[in-house]
Amino acid sequence: MFNPERHELILSILNEKGAVSVAELTETLGVSESTVRRDLVELSETGVINKVHGGATLNKRQFILTEDTVDDKREKNICEKRKIAEYAAKHITDSDFVYLDAGTSTLFMIDYLPKDLKATFVTNGISHAKLLSKRNYKAVIIGGQLKSTTEAVIGLSAANNLQSYNFTKAFFGTNGITENQGYSTPDSDEAFVKSAAINRSFVSYVLADSSKFGKVSSVSFATLDRACIITDKKPESIFEKLTVVKVVD
Question: Are strands 49-52 and 55-58 parallel, antiparallel or unpaired?
Answer without folding.
Answer: antiparallel
